[in-house]
Design brief:
Shape: elongated
Number of strands: 10
Distance between the termini: 27 Å
CATH topology of the largest domain: Jelly Rolls
Strand content: 15-25%
Order of helices and strands: EHEEEEHEEEEHEHHHHHHHHH
Radius of gyration: 24 Å
CATH superfamily of the largest domain: Jelly Rolls
Length: 319
């Protein structure tokens, strides 16, 4: 079950920031917070738990935060804190080193180390994952020497960012039996992205599963493109076509079978939707990525044991 913290509901700007500083930052997260202006402070956080991992979607206005000796003594933690920045810009100092980051970057902090400053220069929209160090340190060497900042535009950074996005969307609905597996994949990806020299063989299962999820997302987003195929997925993931085929072997379907199945599902739902009565069957088929009507009819009958016309003739649903 999720928890939402909506700071803007408090009456005055002074009350808003006081609650943020004293309750949210100092009491819950073990951080100090300060700001130079006195206007409204419209911070918002949605918290979900994924097993022992805490996932937060946050909007944070301009201000400064940090974790020094006082905060570490008051609220000791042994965890990693990972930010995926979607909008905004930050700079600061961590372990005595200056850093800057913006939209598309990933930031990794160890809460056992002081963070001299985390300065939000432009209002920040970010996904934050807070997870116990033992989840990683039980299997891998510590990430204490890992880089604090990583690009998410390509390579392992892109794979990690894609998995975090999927995980944050599913965190509130993921069944309990799947949480441990999700945690394990996350840790594998964090290690592979931020410290790729750390026992890479142990990361491979989690990486393959994350790449499979990324390939499935690409299929879902590109159904309408008749030119979309395995080559596009291989290029996007930075792997070979053969590697993509092997990713789908564990699902019991080939890549092509998965793509066609997704297009047939989309066409079935469109033909069953009364709001789309005005569209022809051909228009729906082409809109779902089929470029050969006879093949579409044949595949449709094999999948649903009826023709597209039969589906459309039945009583339709609202959506």
């Amino acid at each position: 079950m999720g928890v939402t913290i909506e700071i803007s509901t408090l009456a005055t700007p002074a009350e808003q920031f006081r609650y943020w500083r004293e309750v949210v930052c100092e009491t819950w997260f073990g951080l100090w917070a300060e700001r130079s202006n006195s206007g409204p402070f419209d911070a918002r956080i949605e918290l979900h738990e994924l097993g022992s991992v805490q996932v937060a979607q946050a909007y944070l206005p301009r201000h400064r935060m940090g974790r020094g000796a006082t905060e570490m003594a008051r609220l000791p933690q042994s965890a990693y804190c990972l930010h995926q920045l979607h909008e905004g810009a930050v700079h600061g100092q961590y372990r005595g080193v200056e850093y800057q980051a913006g939209a598309g970057d990933l930031l990794l902090f160890d809460t056992a180390d002081p963070c001299e400053s985390f300065v939000i220069d432009q209002p920040l929209r970010t996904t934050i994952l807070h997870y116990p160090r033992k989840l990683i340190d039980d299997q891998y060497a510590s990430l204490r020497r890992a880089s604090v900042r990583l690009h998410s535009r390509d390579g392992m950074g892109a794979l990690l960012a894609g998995y975090i996005s999927s995980l944050s969307q599913a965190a509130s609905t993921l069944p309990p039996q799947a949480m441990g597996k999700a945690e394990s994949i996350l840790c594998d990806l964090v290690v592979a992205a931020f410290q790729p020299s750390a026992q890479p063989d142990l990361c491979q299962l989690g990486i393959r599963q994350a790449k499979l999820a990324a390939a499935q997302q690409l299929i879902a987003k590109n159904l309408a493109d008749p030119e979309f195929g395995i080559g596009r997925v291989a290029e996007r993931l930075g792997v070979s076509r053969r590697y993509v085929q092997k990713l789908f072997e564990c699902t019991g379907r080939t890549f092509t079978e998965t793509l066609v199945s997704a297009r047939l599902e989309a066409s079935y739902h469109a033909l069953s939707d009364r709001r789309q009565k005005g569209r022809t069957i051909a228009d729906i088929a082409f809109g779902c990525g089929f470029n050969d009507l006879s093949w579409f009819y044949r595949c449709y009958r094999e999948r649903w044991s009826e023709t597209p016309g039969d589906t459309r003739a039945r009583p339709t649903r609202a959506s």
